[in-house]
Amino acid sequence: MVNKRPGRKRGLGRKARLLVTAVAGAAVLAGASLWIVYGTGAFAVESVVVRGASFTDHEQVTKAAGVAEGTAIAAVDTDEVARRVSKVPAVRTATVSRDWPHGIVITIKERKPRLAVPKDRKFILVDEAGVAFRTVSKQPSGTVKTTVSDPARDDAATQAVLSVLPKLSPELEKLLVSVEAPTQSRIELKLKGSRTVFWGDSSRSDRKAEVATSLLKRTEKHLDVSAPDVPTVS
């Protein structure tokens, strides 16, 4: 005779019902949690904080970020916000994080000026990558006064000057007053004492810097190292 053990079946049935109930409860709890996070104002954006800005306008950054007050904080695409903020001219890099329960924090690194290009009695600041990002009334210390027709990342003359400056010797740097580059092949250094160094293009800048430095001991005002193997003075 086969024993059907009805008690065992009832036990298995109770376990199955408990499992179903537990899964359903977890689903309800998860749904409720998502609703609280996304569907209510319990975790909505109330503030956008900008960090790392010394001269960059905060309002310009928050406007570029485009994070509306009241947006569910979990719904904010931080990578996309960082991408938008990085388009602000003065911003070199941007990172965005959530500050639960109601804040968004934007941390930026600003561009550092390398060139100061005179225009209309002001100066356009250009960073080491050639990006023109700000206009100021006074030339900042540590920048090189540079005359180019179109200061920009894709301007050949701007890029030529930026490639020459790191090659200058300490002696040339100490005497340097400004740089003029009407074209990429007509770079000229203006030195203290009304002296000039015609550099030509940016090729062989290491050699040109070496030759120009050696010629500083001479009394002539105008040095031409555009052909560094046969320099001339006048």
Instruction: Sketch the topology as an H/E string, one letter per element.
Output: HEHHEEEEEEHHEEEHEE
Tell me the name of the CATH class of the largest domain: Alpha Beta
| Secondary-structure-derived class | alpha/beta
Strand tally is 12
Main location: membrane
Keywords: Cell cycle, Cell division, Cell membrane, Membrane, Transmembrane, Transmembrane helix
Subcellular location: Membrane
GO biological process, one term: cell division
Brief digest:
The chain is an alpha/beta fold and 234 residues long. It contains 6 helices and 12 strands.
Textual characterization of the structure:
The protein is 32% helix and 28% strand. It folds into two domains: 43-110, membrane protein fhac (Ubiquitin-like (UB roll), Roll), CATH 3.10.20; 113-233, Rossmann fold (3-Layer(aba) Sandwich), CATH 3.40.50. It is built from six helices and twelve strands. The protein has a nine-stranded mixed sheet with strand order 6-5-4-7-8-9-10-11-12. The relative contact order is 0.08. The protein has 234 residues and is α/β, with parallel strands linked by helices. The chain is elongated. The model is unreliable at 20-40 (pLDDT under 50). Keywords: Cell cycle, Cell division, Cell membrane, Membrane, Transmembrane, Transmembrane helix. One of its GO terms (biological process) is cell division. It comes from Stackebrandtia nassauensis (strain DSM 44728 / CIP 108903 / NRRL B-16338 / NBRC 102104 / LLR-40K-21).
